[in-house]
Amino acid sequence: MTGKYAPLYEWLKGRGAAVQAIALAFDELDRLLGGALPRSARIRRGWWANSASGHSPQAGAWLQAGWRVARVEREGGWVRFERAA
Predict the structure, then answer these.
(1) Quick one: which of 64, 65, 60, 75 has its CA closest to 26?
(2) H or E element at residue 12
(3) pLDDT score of 55 more than 80
(4) Are 69 and 81 in contact (CB under 8 A)?
(5) How many CA atoms within 13 Å lie on the side-chain side of 69?
(6) Coil, strand, or helix at residue 74?
(7) CA–CA distance, 42 with 19 (Å, rounded to integer)
(8) What is the mean pLDDT of the chain?
(9) What angle do CA 36, 63, 80 make, to 5 degrees?
């Protein structure tokens, strides 16, 4: 995995098997990625879709790492990832 979302992929891959869910604040994701999430991540639910299409490198990162987005609270500024079945 390469590109802007590679740090997210690596971070999620590094979570132990006992960890089944993780909630991250958008600010934490900004730090993890080394830069701000795009504005669309903060205003569009679709940005967080679990679709690995070529137009969604962010979803490719979490899906390839074995996770999926279970919940997004844009107003609260956080996302919950759960292990993919």
Answers:
(1) 75
(2) helix 6-13
(3) no
(4) yes
(5) 21
(6) coil
(7) 26
(8) 94
(9) 60
> Residue ranges per domain, the chain?
6-83
Tell me the one-letter amino acid at 6. Answer: A
- What is the amino acid identity at position 51? S
Look up residue 47 and give its amino acid.
W
Mean pLDDT of 52-71: 91
The model's pTM: 0.92
Q: Which residues pair with 23 in a beta bridge?
A: 80
pLDDT band at 1 (very low <50, low <70, confident <90, very high): confident
Amino acid letter for position 8: L
Tokens at 24, concatenated: 């991250």
Residue 61, phi-psi category: left (phi > 0), alpha (psi -120 to 50), beta (remainder): alpha
Task: With beta carbons less than 8 A apart as the criterion, state whether 72 and 47 touch.
Answer: no
Query: Do 73 and 20 touch, CB atoms closer than 8 A?
Result: no
Contact (CB, 8 A) for 68 and 62: yes
